[in-house]
């Protein structure tokens, strides 16, 4: 959000100069933040996600067991003070591997959502603004990717993701997430294009590319922020599905998906191997969805609350 | 009209061809059928392996493009080639398609009907207990990945069966093999098998649809035409069902095309976890067995399915909305 | 308070009606104590600007407000209390005893059902009719409200109806069960003026047929003048004046009413002078000032006004009430609101004659066609819309040319074609001596610098994500002006805003202020020609007057030329030097404003001018309107020969042989003396205003 509320340098100069008196008007960013934190869902989602982040990244620093360590004195033991979430059949500590898995899931989800939303914004806005052949080509590519079974393609490519190649996995994940959003962005660009402030910029002589980046995309920012949030959960869910079947994050690395897959086999007699990973995953996705929903309301208060 | 339809069909065919070709190229270069033979003890002589792979058009020593040409030529004649063990892909997939179709259809109908109804009711009673309950439930369901949901259902079913001491929920396969008894017994058995997979497939769909339908319904609740309907003397409930819900169904139908892709993925997980021998299960198996031809064939079917869904949603939209019909 | 003209017990009595949205400190009191009653056959007008609570009040009477609105007071229909009644009970009254016509006909009908079925539904809800009987009656009703080929049109869907036809269908629905009261909420606001005249005529006819009382809610003082018996003026959720229409118009007692009447440009008054705007903006219903809510804007305010809100009380006699502590003084003529406004600096005196002035904008035989497609899912091309079919006019230095016409006449398309600066499909556009079809990129930028635009909607013409500073600096940056800061400050002062406003966002401004920002942006590059697309039509009258004054002042001070596109003929008469009337992609008549308005030659101009209601009850009642039949023909399939002949009253009056010429020969604009011209074979002057 901050990109739209910061003032250009010259304007700051203008405001601090003796001639121009800065008037304290709540900026849009601050209004949205106030509405966001004013809602129950926004507060709960933000708090949950913050706790998840803290646990995933700070937890391993203070916890005695590493995710590769094996405790050969404890195989498949229930939670205890020495192993908070119990141990696996291999003697690995469930808390350590779960936090490691959460790190991966969070990072993969956030990055994939960022990349896919940026892609969606640019493709959709250009297709909608320029129309003609630009539009036809871009939208055909989007259709093609919609028609390709994403899960299968990612699964087929899984050997490429082995051995620390997870950034490639993120890019591929993002490549299959942007299409629907880009179509929405295109549709909104079409109607935005008829709006008078865009026409005014055009008739002033502002260049088309500049109009897209300065007027079109900023005015879709609420949609894009909400969409990016929801893409985080979509990416995490896809990653889990792929890793569950062994097509995502590859050993020795772990993700929540691989942990859930392993845990589901022992779930009936050793519930801690399944439920901690599954529960934390659910809480994470729930938190992200709550944030997305609260953001949507915060950006567009007329949508629901006012009625 | 005819010209328009023809252009759209040509575009669809082009999309299927490009998508399937891409999937073939990718699978042919990334998967390694040779490893299936190398893993055998004792490993067969290389010449035998090469001959077998050549026969199946799976030899990675042949350039990908050459394999692609041979494959596409046979596809043009309606033959998707052979699996790694030499069975025809066509026959195998035809058998499995029925299983998947049954699962998808039931899941889709249950999911969309329950979702649309739940969403519409939630909107009408906005901020009432039903709305709060369905909102909370759908948030929870949307946070649970299908793989976790399916496993949770299985764990719950096993626990329940143990509790009552009877096999109420059956968690593996489509039917119990070698079941005795009449038609009724068979139907009950099928229903017992169907219950959990349908639930695992449609719960997510219900959640998505109810959220979407709730928003669509809220948009039309305040619409001028609903007000007009009430101003002419219709009771609120009548105006809402006859005028608001009917109009709010139109966008839900367009949304259908977008959910179809997700449904395919959901089916894949559900079949694999509940042991249904459908296309989804084969998709995952085929990647493990490096079965290039099956992967390409399933891609083709998936692309076809998505486009059929898109066309169906367009047709349904035209049926529901006089504004988009050709006048 | 018995009314001699409309005897009988009141059919609708509203007493102390209040509507509140929300609660606590953020509660919005939209209506704060409304009282009125209507008797059988009486027409009551409720006038007010946007936000005055007039529409909310009518929805409260119908019981159609959303559940979170808190309504108190009393609404009695034929003696029965409606407030607090169950939905079932109210539904029995709605549509049968009391019915309603809404503002926006485009969204008032359910898009998925046939029009005839929707009208039949209104009948079957209340009467025991078979489907066939209801359908038959629906067709009769469509015929009654003047829809041609009613049996055929009854099977059409709403999107196949024009706005005027949809509004007729809504009226048909409202009168279907012979109600006692019809509430009309801005029934003609969304319609063109000739269609407005038709719909008002239908409403009058409907009233005659049903004998119903009508509550007419509108912001248009002209519509009220000719249509109603009594008028109630609302401000900030309260009635501030109520009386017979003649008394309120000729002897207003409340300064707000006086201000409203003074700020309306008049179609029948040619003299140049400044309008008298009401200062400031209407108060937000969430933050009302203490005392009289009009006090901050009132020219007659005295310190006592701030003490308490004045009650509505009889002034002249028991039926003329006003809520002003100085109403007595106003009545006796002791005080008056007429302010002393500085005259606009005269420009006409030493101005050279028109012929010797430079042509700033020349348009010759401009043509713009675009494909007509049908269907959203199965799109296909079904024809060609001839949006602009050979339009010619010129605009000289220091002049304002008004381009008027109803929606669909091609005025906006003409304007867009000029602004695009691309080679037109046909004809020539010359801006400041340069033909736009031959421009290279650098030339195009320099033409853009000289020609700027102000748009209609102040909500959408400013990017909501940019500060006012960025908005005003954008044209300067696009044309590589260094250091836009000082210029932005000057611009804000020029349009009557403070330089401190630069740091704010458009959402912090009222509609009138936003339009001033839009004007400032257009002036940033010191253009010579400003194109104005309906610049005041989205504003309330009291605000509109201020913006019109600003435009006139800027033109005189900066020596600008204006191309002023508008549908409001009164505004154009006020601001323009010359006027061009468009019909279906062509110019029907063009000339000096006073000549065209006083002696219109083209039958379309005559009908158009006669359709504009005047805010003057006596004049308005005496006027004869030329009612045009039907709707605008589709621009995809215009009539042969003269495009207006299908609706032309003159065409009907002439003989068969003369008609042949209209059918086969396209009339060109021919001179009618001076630079006055009309595109009619048989043009003759007629006094219509």
Automatic annotation (TrEMBL), chain A:
Keywords attached to this entry: Cell inner membrane, Cell membrane, Membrane, Peptide transport, Protein transport, Transmembrane, Transmembrane helix, Transport
Gene3D superfamilies per record: MetI-like (1.10.3720.10)
Superkingdom: Bacteria
Annotated InterPro entries: BP-dependent_transpt_permease, MetI-like, MetI-like_sf, OppC_N
One family name in Pfam for this protein: BPD_transp_1
Name this polypeptide is given: Oligopeptide transport system permease protein OppC
Family note: Belongs to the binding-protein-dependent transport system permease family. OppBC subfamily.
Presence of the UniProt keyword Transmembrane in the record: yes
Automatic annotation (TrEMBL), chain B:
Gene Ontology annotations for the cellular component aspect, listed alphabetically: plasma membrane
Lineage top rank: taxon: Bacteria
Domain ABC transmembrane type-1 residue range list: 97-313
Entry keyword set: Cell membrane, Membrane, Transmembrane, Transmembrane helix, Transport
Cited SUPFAM superfamilies: MetI-like
GO terms for biological process, alphabetical: transmembrane transport
Transmembrane segments: 12-31, 103-125, 137-160, 194-212, 244-269, 295-315
Membrane topology of the entry: Multi-pass membrane protein
Compartment(s) of residence: Cell membrane
Coiled-coil segments on the chain, per record: none
Family per similarity comment: Belongs to the binding-protein-dependent transport system permease family.
Name of the protein in question: Peptide transport permease protein
UniProtKB/TrEMBL annotation, chain C:
Highest rank taxon of the organism: Bacteria
Keywords attached to this entry: ATP-binding, Nucleotide-binding, Transport
SUPFAM superfamilies named among the record's database cross-references: P-loop containing nucleoside triphosphate hydrolases
Span of domain ABC transporter: 12-261, 361-609
GO molecular function, one term: ATP binding
InterPro entries attached to this UniProt entry: AAA+_ATPase, ABC_transp_ATP-bind, ABC_transporter-like_ATP-bd, ABC_transporter-like_CS, Oligopep_ABC_C, P-loop_NTPase
GO BP terms, alphabetized: peptide transport; transmembrane transport
Record protein name field: Oligopeptide ABC transporter ATP-binding protein OppF
Organism: Sinosporangium siamense
């Amino acid at each position: 959000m901050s990109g739209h509320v910061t003032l250009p340098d010259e304007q700051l100069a203008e405001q601090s100069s003796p001639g121009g008196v800065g008037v304290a008007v709540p900026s849009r960013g601050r209004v949205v933040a106030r509405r966001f934190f004013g809602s129950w869902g926004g507060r709960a989602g933000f708090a949950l996600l913050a706790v998840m982040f803290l646990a995933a990244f700070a937890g391993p620093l203070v916890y005695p067991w590493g995710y590769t360590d094996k405790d050969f004195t404890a195989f498949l033991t229930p939670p205890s003070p020495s192993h908070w979430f119990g141990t696996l059949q291999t003697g690995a500590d469930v808390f350590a591997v779960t936090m490691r898995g959460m790190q991966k899931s969070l990072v993969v989800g956030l990055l994939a959502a960022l990349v896919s939303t940026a892609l969606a914004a640019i493709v959709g806005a250009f297709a909608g603004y320029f129309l003609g052949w630009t539009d036809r080509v871009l939208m055909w590519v989007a259709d093609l990717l919609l028609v390709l079974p994403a899960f299968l393609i990612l699964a087929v490519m899984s050997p490429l993701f082995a051995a620390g190649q997870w950034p490639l996995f993120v890019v591929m994940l993002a490549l299959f997430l942007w299409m629907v959003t880009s179509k929405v962005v295109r549709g909104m660009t079409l109607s935005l294009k008829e709006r008078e402030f865009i026409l005014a910029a055009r008739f002033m002589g502002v260049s088309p590319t500049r109009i897209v980046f300065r007027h079109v995309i900023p005015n879709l920012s609420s949609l894009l922020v909400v969409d990016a949030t929801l893409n985080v959960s979509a990416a995490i869910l896809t990653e889990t599905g792929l890793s569950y079947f062994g097509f995502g994050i590859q050993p020795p690395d772990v993700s929540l998906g691989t942990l859930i897959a392993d845990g589901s086999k022992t779930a009936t007699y050793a519930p801690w191997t399944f439920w901690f990973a599954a529960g934390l995953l659910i809480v994470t996705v729930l938190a992200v969805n709550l944030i997305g929903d609260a953001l949507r309301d915060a950006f567009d208060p007329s949508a629901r609350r006012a009625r | 009209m005819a010209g328009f339809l023809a252009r759209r069909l040509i575009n669809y065919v082009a999309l299927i061809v490009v998508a399937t070709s891409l999937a073939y190229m990718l699978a042919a270069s990334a998967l390694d059928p040779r490893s299936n033979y190398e893993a055998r003890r004792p490993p067969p002589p290389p010449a035998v392996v090469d001959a077998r792979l050549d026969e199946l058009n799976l030899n990675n020593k042949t350039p990908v493009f050459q394999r692609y040409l041979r494959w596409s030529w046979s596809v043009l004649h309606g033959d998707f080639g052979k699996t790694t063990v030499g069975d025809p892909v066509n026959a195998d997939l035809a058998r499995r398609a029925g299983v998947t179709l049954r699962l998808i259809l039931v899941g889709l109908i249950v999911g969309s009907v329950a979702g649309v109804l739940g969403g519409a009711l939630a909107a009408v009673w906005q901020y009432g207990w039903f709305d709060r309950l369905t909102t909370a439930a759908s948030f929870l369901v949307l946070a649970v990945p299908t793989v976790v949901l399916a496993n949770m259902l299985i764990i719950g079913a096993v626990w329940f069966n143990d509790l009552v001491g009877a096999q109420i929920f059956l968690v593996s396969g489509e039917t119990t093999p070698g079941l005795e008894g009449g038609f009724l017994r068979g139907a009950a058995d099928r229903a017992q098998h169907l219950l959990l997979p349908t639930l695992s497939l449609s719960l997510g769909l219900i959640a998505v649809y109810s959220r979407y339908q709730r928003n669509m319904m809220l948009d039309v609740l305040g619409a001028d035409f609903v007000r007009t309907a009430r101003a002419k003397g219709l009771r609120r409930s009548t105006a809402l069902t006859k005028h608001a819900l009917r109009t709010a169904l139109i966008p839900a139908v367009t949304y259908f095309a977008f959910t179809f892709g997700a449904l395919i993925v959901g089916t894949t997980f559900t079949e694999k976890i509940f042991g249904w021998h459908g296309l989804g299960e084969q998709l995952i198996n085929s990647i493990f067995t490096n079965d290039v031809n099956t992967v390409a064939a399933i891609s083709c079917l998936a692309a076809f399915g998505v486009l059929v869904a898109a066309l169906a949603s367009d047709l349904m939209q035209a049926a529901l909305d006089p504004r988009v019909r050709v006048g | 308070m018995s009314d001699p003209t409309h005897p009988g017990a009141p059919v609708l009595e509203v007493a102390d009606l209040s509507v509140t949205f929300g609660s606590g400190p953020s509660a919005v009191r939209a209506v704060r104590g409304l009282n009125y009653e209507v008797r059988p056959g009486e027409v009551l007008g409720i006038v007010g600007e946007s936000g005055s609570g007039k529409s909310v009040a009518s929805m409260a009477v119908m019981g159609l407000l959303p559940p979170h609105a808190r309504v108190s007071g009393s609404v009695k229909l034929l003696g029965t209390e409606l407030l607090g009644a169950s939905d079932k009970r109210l539904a029995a009254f709605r549509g049968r005893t009391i019915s309603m016509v809404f503002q926006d006909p485009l969204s008032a009908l359910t898009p998925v059902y046939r029009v005839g079925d929707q009208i039949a539904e209104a009948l079957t809800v209340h009467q025991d009719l078979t489907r066939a009987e209801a359908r038959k009656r629906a067709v009769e009703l469509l015929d009654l409200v003047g829809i041609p080929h009613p049996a055929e049109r009854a099977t059409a869907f709403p999107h196949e109806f024009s706005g005027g036809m949809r509004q007729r269908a809504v009226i048909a629905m409202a009168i279907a069960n012979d109600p006692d009261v019809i509430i009309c909420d801005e029934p003609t606001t969304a319609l063109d003026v000739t269609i407005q005249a038709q719909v008002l005529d239908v409403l009058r006819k409907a009233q005659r047929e049903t004998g119903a009382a009508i509550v007419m809610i509108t912001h248009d003082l002209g519509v009220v003048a000719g249509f109603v018996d009594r008028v109630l003026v609302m401000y900030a959720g309260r009635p501030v004046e109520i009386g017979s229409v003649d008394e309120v118009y000729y002897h207003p007692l409340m300064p707000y009413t006086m201000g409203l009447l003074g700020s309306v440009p008049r179609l029948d008054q040619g003299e140049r002078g400044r309008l008298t705007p009401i200062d400031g903006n209407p108060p937000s219903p969430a933050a009302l000032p203490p005392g009289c809510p009009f006090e901050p804007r009132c020219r007659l305010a005295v310190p006592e006004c701030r003490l308490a809100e004045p009650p509505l009380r009889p002034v002249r006699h028991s039926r003329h009430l006003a809520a002003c502590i100085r109403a007595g003084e106003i009545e006796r003529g002791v005080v008056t609101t007429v302010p002393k406004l500085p005259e606009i600096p005269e420009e006409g005196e030493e101005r050279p004659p028109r012929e010797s002035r430079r042509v700033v904008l020349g348009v010759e035989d401009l043509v713009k066609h675009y494909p007509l497609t049908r269907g959203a899912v199965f799109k296909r091309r079904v024809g060609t819309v001839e949006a602009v079919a050979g339009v010619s006019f010129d605009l000289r230095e220091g002049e304002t040319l008004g381009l008027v016409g109803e929606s669909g006449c091609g005025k906006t398309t003409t304007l867009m074609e000029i602004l695009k600066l691309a080679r037109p499909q046909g004809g020539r556009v010359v801006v400041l001596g340069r033909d736009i079809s031959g421009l290279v990129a650098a030339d195009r930028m320099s033409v853009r610098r000289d020609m700027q635009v102000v748009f209609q909607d102040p909500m959408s013409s400013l990017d909501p994500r940019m500060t006012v500073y960025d908005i005003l600096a954008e044209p300067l940056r696009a044309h590589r002006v260094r250091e836009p800061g000082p210029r932005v400050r000057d611009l804000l002062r020029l349009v009557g805003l403070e330089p401190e406003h630069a740091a704010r966002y458009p959402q912090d401004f009222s509609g009138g202020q936003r339009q001033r920002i839009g004007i400032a942006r257009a002036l940033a590059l010191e253009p010579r020609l400003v194109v104005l697309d309906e610049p005041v039509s989205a504003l309330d009258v009291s605000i509109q007057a201020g913006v019109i004054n600003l435009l006139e002042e800027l033109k005189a001070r900066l020596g600008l030329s204006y191309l002023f596109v508008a549908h409001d003929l009164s505004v154009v008469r006020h601001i323009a030097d010359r006027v061009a009337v468009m019909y279906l992609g062509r110019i029907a008549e063009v000339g000096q404003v006073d000549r065209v308005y006083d002696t219109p030659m083209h039958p379309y101009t005559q009908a158009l001018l006669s359709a504009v209601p005047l805010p003057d009850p006596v004049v308005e009642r005496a006027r004869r309107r030329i009612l045009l039949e039907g709707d605008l023909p589709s621009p995809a399939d215009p009539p042969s020969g003269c495009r207006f002949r299908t609706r032309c009253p003159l065409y009907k009056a002439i003989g068969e042989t003369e008609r042949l010429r209209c059918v086969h020969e396209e009339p060109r604009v021919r001179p009618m003396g001076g630079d006055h011209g009309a595109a009619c074979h048989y043009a003759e002057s007629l006094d219509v205003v």
